[in-house]
Input
Amino acid sequence: MSSKRHLPATGLLAGTTAVVLGLAACSGGTGAGSAGGGGGGGSSATKGATTIKLVAAEYSKNHTKAFWDQFAQAYKSKTGNTLQVQIVSWDDIDQQSSTMVQNNNPPDILNLNAYASYAKDGLLYSADEVLSDTVKSDLLDAFVKSGSYQGKMYGMPDLSSARAMFYNKTLFQKAGISAPPKTWAEFQADATKIAGLGNGAIGYGLPLGPEESQGEFSIWMFNNGGDWKKDGKWTINSPENVETLTFLKSLATKKLTQNNPGKTNRQDAFDLFASGKVGMVVGFSPLAGKLDADKKVQYGVAPMPTKADGGTPQTFGVTDYLMAFKKKGNQDAVKAFYDLYYQKDQVNSFIKAEGFLPVTKSGIQEFSGDPKLKTYLETLPNAHLTPTDDPTWDKVKLAVQQNLGTAITGDPKAVLDKLQKSAEAGG
Amino acid sequence: MALLWLAPALLLILGVVVWPAVELVRASLARFSITGLNKGSAGLDNYRNVLANESLGTVLANTVVWVVAVVALTILISLGLAQFLTKDFWGRRFVRWAVIVPWAASLVITARLFSLIYSYYYGTLNAVLLKLHLVHTPVDFLGNDRWIMPSMVAVGVFVSIPFTAYVFVAGLNAIPTDVYEAARIDGASPWKIWRLITLPLLRPAILVATVLNMIYVFNSFPIIYTLNESNPGFAHDTTITFMYKLAFKSAEKDVGQSAAAGLFNVCLILVAVLVYLRVSRWREEES
Output
């Protein structure tokens, strides 16, 4: 986050506006490209060669910048075009991208976890304009669907992840549990056994704080037959969803979770699991990467338990997007960007380095050799996503993040009713 | 000719003060899409929406508590600290440097450090309290609604003391020693000397420190934003973090509303400062 000191010189007005306008000076990206970004993307240096700008989210300090720098070189030698790269942390990227659009100076390619609002505002190229057929047919259907707004694809997936239940084998053994839970009843019984071990043991790490409460709630509701939207209608306060949130609240009331789950962020829950105190947590492959590197916790990965006996476990899938802004004269350069990005050695090596999951059919084949990824890869093509194709979701998601946690101390139904109402009103 | 000499300063003022202010007003009157795209005029809707926000009352109350508590505690503690720092003692230079450190460190880093100190599971503060048997279970400083504001105020005071204490040190050094000598010869008690000589002569310094602290503390962003990070909603936000969340984090995600809130903020602090100056001058005339 930017360093807005509360002392000295910054004038009152200047200080206030800096926050509002998110002046670039506050929080520069760490990227390589020239920071000014003024010139606008489409300006041609020599005839035929174009300079385009990429604003990318930082997935990890070690790999993201290295990958994109190498990519920019490959792009240059292949097309003759220049790719300016600016890497921005996840904390700042919403603010930065909003400021760029506000100032009428968007990048050519933006890497973000949402795209539908941008498509709705008519700022983006559709896949028909910038994606070649071979690339498009290689993308997994689930992601083509989630990337499509009003029948046209605008959100090109850069990588994906799928969630699964991580459990601490040592704690399971101590509590005498032989296999990970398959139903909610078993899950609750197991969590109770682990919490009963004492010594600070926590049954389940439940993060409903503002960082990503929509993710935690999604995977539980999907395994109770619920969803955010069904047949084009918002179903946030459906009976199954109220039941799901009430169940999560009851875990907290019964002291099966860590302290104050409504105010625990995902990262805090992961940290607790990595410290070996937590029996179970919903995690994804980057968490596995960290646990493998630490070698401290003996863990297993299992499909999510379902509410119903013998139900099919649902996984919650997430994908981020690379979207392309319509600007004069950048269409060919943008198309060349996607052509190169989706080459097997590019996209898959990026995903491998960052520890995520593939977005292409050829990627699934390439990754299928890795036994660690088996649980995820099998479920990935059927992964259940949030309704990222609806621009309203971009606002609903924020409302969920800021409000869901209050259900732990408040009334789950009232919280969901309110969210449903704001979703129906268009966010 | 004069204009030539004034030009750099004027340009600076235009660029740093006037231009952002104009942009802020313009943004507050425009309708923005969630992407940041300007969709034309909004009239006064942004202002209306901010005033209609159901959390506004909580946010304003938080702001008053935050500013009053931090400034009052800072002034009180700094008065004592400044007296101590003007005394001659072995190692004074070292202590003076130590007092400056919290000011020199970046607020974001200080705030992060405190979120570790306050942490429920790993925090040093809880470890100490448990060891001393002052508490039986850890205190959730940043999650328990009763504790969040006091925890944030403590950090606010911690980072505001250096500046304030040094203003007072300068003020104390400016008081001529013969006044004290005369008072002592007349047999005044230390308490009387402090109340009737030190305090009145320190008045300008106190006034300056209070006004500047009010503005700084009111505009303080990183402490509240960082320590309040894992709490959903606006329950512990002040107007500054409220404004930021309106623009980028909340369901509103509306730059226009945020700009309107920003203008309200400017008015609010101006009024607060004017009221304070009025009240303190009025007392001066009366005494």
Chain A has two domains: 32-160+318-380, 164-314+390-424. DSSP finds 19 helices and 13 strands in chain A. Residues 1-47 of chain A have pLDDT under 50 and may be disordered.
